[in-house]
Amino acid sequence: MRKLLILAFLIPGLNMMAQMNPVLKNRRGIAILPQQKDWCIGFGANPVFNYFGNMFNASTSNNGLNASFAAPNKMIFAKYMKTNEMAYRVSFRLGFTNDVTTFNVKDMTPGAATDAVVTDKQKRNNSFIGLGFGIEKRKGSATRIQGFYGVEGLISYSSGDNINYEYGNGLEKLDTGLIRVKKLKSSSLFSIGCRGFAGVEYFIAPKFSIGAELGYGPSIGFRSASEQTTEQYDFWSTTTTSEVTVLSPKSTVFTLDTDNYNGIVKLLFYF
User: Fold this and answer.
1) pTM to 2 decimals?
2) Going by C-beta distance under 8 Å and a sequence separation of 6 or more, which residues neighbour residue 16?
3) Burial, 239: exposed, middle or buried (Cβ in 10 Å; 0-12, 13-18, 19+)?
4) What is the pLDDT of residues 112-166, one digit of tens each?
5) Can you tell me the distance from the alpha carbon of 27 to that of 83, in angstroms, rounded to the nearest whole number?
6) Nearest to residue 231, comparing CAs of 220, 242, 221?
7) Which run of H or E residues covers position 258?
8) What ranges do the domains of the chain cover?
């Protein structure tokens, strides 16, 4: 009898809680807002807006869509809904570039044919590593407009461009006193920071939203020196000498400012 009385009081209470926390659904009964254990992948909507906007302004340079991931420096952006109102968010990027450009130039070897050529090469490489982790909390009733806020930490490293030149003609074959660039090393940058953020998402369709956010927080960056290496041939001693010149010194940069997430408007897909 006691168990029946408990159930009699409990069932109406559960019904009342369900009415206080309704699940927003479309006409087909599909939940519109993300639910617990959902995953999310996001990318920048800016290229989409630019592409379709240029279709109506007679632009002759309307390039195809080129997705920019919704995080600074094109980092991959993802979320995991721990609960209906709280999510873990991560950003990640690991990028490398290796570019080789060749040029055919006249062969300056004594006695070489008039149309003989040799090859100069320019080798450029750079890399970027970025990682971010944060906690996001959602705020809003069961409507298509959802606010969110939270905090996240970010760490990144950019090597900058490193350029090496390989010449088909040795300096001894060229004019006396010629100085040419052998290597260019731009500044690398290591930075670490954190930010509080707040933003809004509008759900266009079930578990598909468009959103943007603002942030505020400190960051510190450590920039290395940039250098240039040149070479010169000494005809008297018949040797090639190299010289390294510092183009910009090491530096440390501290900032505390607002940000708009690189002006990115995000498209977010939950599943």
Assistant:
1) 0.73
2) none
3) exposed
4) 899 999 999 999 999 999 899 999 999 878 889 999 999 999 999 999 999 999 9
5) 25
6) 242
7) strand 251-259
8) 36-270
Q: Which two tokens stand for residue 128?
A: 């970027």
Q: Which two tokens stand for residue 60?
A: 């002759």
Q: What six digits make up the tokens of 171? A: 């300096």
Cα separation, 19 vs 13, in Å, equals: 10
Write out pLDDT tens, residues 63-89: 544 444 334 446 778 999 999 999 999
Which whole-number Å values give the CA distances from 209 to 21, 25, 39, 259, in the listed order?
A: 21, 14, 13, 21
Map residue 232 onto helix, strand or coil: strand
- Of 220, 217, 71, the closest CA to residue 150 belongs to 217
CA angle 123, 124, 130 (to 5 degrees): 150
CA distance 201 to 147: 6
- Spatial CB neighbours of 28, under 8 Å, sequence gap ≥ 6: none
**CB-based contacts of 24-27 (< 8 A; 24+ apart in sequence):** 24/142, 24/143, 24/144, 26/205, 26/206
- Spatial separation of the C-alpha atoms in residues 139 and 152, rounded to whole Å: 17
